[in-house]
Design a protein that fits this description.
Layout (H helix, E strand, L loop, with lengths): L1 H21 L10 E10 L2 E4 L4 E4 L2 E2 L10 H15 L3 E9 L5 E7 L2 E2 H7 L4 E2 L8 H9 L2 H9 L4 H4 L4
Parallel strand pairs: 3-6
Antiparallel strand pairs: 1-2, 1-5, 2-3, 4-8, 5-6, 6-7
Amino acid sequence: MKKEFFNTTFTAFGLLSALTLALPCSNLAEVRDLVRIEDCYDGDTCRATSGERIRLACIDAPDRRGNPADQDRAVAARDRLRLIVVGKTVDLRRITMDRYGRTVGELFLNGMNIQQLMVVGGHAVILPRYAHQCPWSHVQVHHDGYEWYACLASYGVTATDWFPHF
């Protein structure tokens, strides 16, 4: 009887772990619109060719204005985001509008969540206050990001492909 309980518990734990790791790569049933990105102001704000301003949800990248010590990091974050999305058509999952009239949403390119890529690459951090808006950010907080490397690898991409060292 003990052995059956152990095997059942172990199997259930393994299944739960597998589902948790699969979450970041899954395509949740949600409405997404296609937008073409024209430019990125910084590491967490872009503009679509339609003129729509998009604030990437659940993350924060260094600001170009403000602390001079963050200027290099802010430019690096902006340049990385530009490299990934500018000139490309991406999926946008709209979440809300912010106080500046920007769309707050998640961007996806070929199934990969751009916010996750920015966090994994060290160009942004998760904003705990807004993490509830992005299911992947809960897993990130609890699993130290290892599953994002697994997610990228499932697409045949390594972290160094997206985020080479400067």
